[in-house]
């Protein structure tokens, strides 16, 4: 599943840390500023676990 997070840099970092506690994160895109919205940043998270044959880590 892909999740998009928009907000200030502090909001984006806080949201990513909260989501990491709940879901397994496969990858995180670089945090990039939005060109026409000052002080707004965007990041994409991929929450699908890697298919290595293993199960969920508990």
TrEMBL record:
<protein>
    <submittedName>
        <fullName>Uncharacterized protein</fullName>
    </submittedName>
</protein>
